Amino acid sequence: MTRIWTVLAVALWAGPGIADGALDAKACTTCHGAGGHSPGAIPSLTGQSAGALRDMLTAYRDGTQPGTIMPRLVAPLTDAEIAALSDTIAEWD
């Protein structure tokens, strides 16, 4: 139950990127910076291949990659949603 509330809280905080339960790439910029260029300690997403992003997001979702917020954000995503998200982010400059 805590996980559901956490995802909901982050969804509301991140804005319309997660409104329908699916993570939109725009929501990623909240933490990872505009266009995936992180302004701080959070890793940048720019320059990552779709395959690498897909592998990392899947690992967060499946619990094989520890994290603070990422496992909670990607927990409800399907393989197809992770692939679509990864493909979109991989196109960022």
Helix and strand sequence: HHHHH
Q: What share of the residues does DSSP label as strand, in percent?
A: under 5%
Low-pLDDT residue intervals, each spanning 5 or more residues: 3-8, 11-21
Structural class estimated from helices and strands: mainly alpha
Using only C-alpha atoms, the radius of gyration works out to 12 Å
Largest sheet: none
Shape: globular
- Oligomerization category of the chains in this entry: single chain
N- and C-termini, Cα separation? 37 Å
Please tell me the overall pLDDT.
82
- Helix content estimate: 40-55%
Task: Provide a count of the helices.
Answer: 5
Number of strands: 0
Written overview of the protein:
The chain has 93 residues and is an all-alpha fold. Helix content is 55%, strand content 0%. It has five helices and no strands. The protein has helices spanning 2-14, 25-32, 50-62, 70-74, 79-90. The chain is globular.
Describe this structure in a few short sentences.
With 93 residues, the chain is an all-alpha fold. 55% of the residues lie in helices and 0% in strands.
